[in-house]
From TrEMBL:
PROSITE patterns: PROKAR_LIPOPROTEIN. This is Uncharacterized protein. It comes from Pseudaeromonas sharmana. It comes from the Bacteria. The keyword Signal applies.
Length: 106
């Protein structure tokens, strides 16, 4: 009886472990990182980091600035990024100059 009970406990443990594998870790939403200031629908980022503004993720990594994974061109390590969003309107300034998405050559 004791060995049967042990077998049931082991089997239940294996089922629990297999079930836990199907449930991945909960994804955490992106968070502000670096020298960031965000207020409502606008934000300022200096240097490398990330800011979330009005649901959009603005990120500076490896010398590039991206909004929602779309490339907006090169930046320096001390560039000041200003981003404003209002519905479908979005504005990105890098060191005071307006930027749009970069286009790949065909």
């Amino acid at each position: 009886m004791k060995s049967t009970l042990s077998g049931v406990v082991i089997a239940m443990g294996l089922v629990g472990a297999l079930t836990a594998c199907d449930i991945g870790p909960a994804e955490t939403p992106p968070q502000n990182k670096g020298n960031v200031s965000v207020t409502a629908n606008e934000g300022r980022l200096v240097g490398r980091g990330r800011m979330v503004v009005d649901g959009h993720v603005v990120e500076v990594q490896v010398g590039r600035v991206r909004i929602d994974s779309v490339d907006y061109g090169p930046v320096t390590s001390d560039s000041e990024i200003y981003f404003r969003s209002n519905g479908s309107y979005r504005q990105l300034l890098v060191n005071g100059e307006q930027r749009g998405p970069t286009r790949k050559a065909k």
